[in-house]
Amino acid sequence: MTKMWANLSTAYPGVTLRVMQGHDMEFSYRVYASSRAEEMARLVDWSEARKGEFLRFQFTAQHTHYQTHYPAARYDVIVRDGEDIGRLYVARLHGEIRLMDIALLSEHRNQGIGHALVKELLDEAADDGKPVTLHVEERNPAKRLYERLGFDEVGEETFYKRMCWAPPGRELPRVADSRRRETGLR
Q1: CA 1 → CA 18, 74, 128, distances in Å?
Q2: pTM for the complete prediction?
Q3: Which residues are CB-neighbours of 34 under 8 A, at least 6 positions away?
Q4: Of the four listed, 109, 148, 164, 168, which is most buried by Cβ atoms within 10 Å?
Q5: What stretch of H or E contains 100?
Q6: Exposed, middle or buried: residue 36 (CB in 10 Å: 0-12, 13-18, 19+)?
Q7: Which domains does the chain have, with CATH numbers?
Q8: Which alpha helices (H) appear in 4-161, and where do they start and end?
Q9: Which pLDDT tens digit goes with each residue over 37-82?
Q10: Distance, CA of 134 to CA of 169 (rounded, Å)
């Protein structure tokens, strides 16, 4: 467990993290599908089976991408009072901390849990003097949370906005520099 979670029990009692295990994949899929439910509801011409196949395909592609590009990342299940309620994926890279994914089951959203977790990550980044980066879709309600926490839009990649939070006294990294760090180029 990293130092970042030391204050979580104070900020949000009953919420902990545990490292994701192989048996957690189906739960992780449920969290992913829950995060796309509103989008899927707009696809009125699709059967439930087709939506399920599409979500499963997208989840598998996302998981494969994360595992391939961020093998040393930490993949956690968010637990509240013993119940699995979400997932948090964080990569600690050379010059930044990457918030790869944070998602909660719908019944646990809008209760301050995501805010508390991201705030803990920002506290760790401030202590380490590193920026925190993430990608978020423009329509994702979490984008407003990131903006309230001080993230700025620094670029756009396909459907996603690239956002960055920098510790006090540090400049936001340029997008090109961030891409070089991701690929290991100097």
Answers
A1: 9, 10, 16
A2: 0.85
A3: 103, 105, 106
A4: 164
A5: strand 97-104
A6: middle
A7: 14-20+72-183 (3.40.630.30)
A8: 8-11, 25-35, 37-41, 48-69, 113-128, 142-148
A9: 988 999 999 999 999 999 999 999 999 999 999 999 999 999 999 9
A10: 20
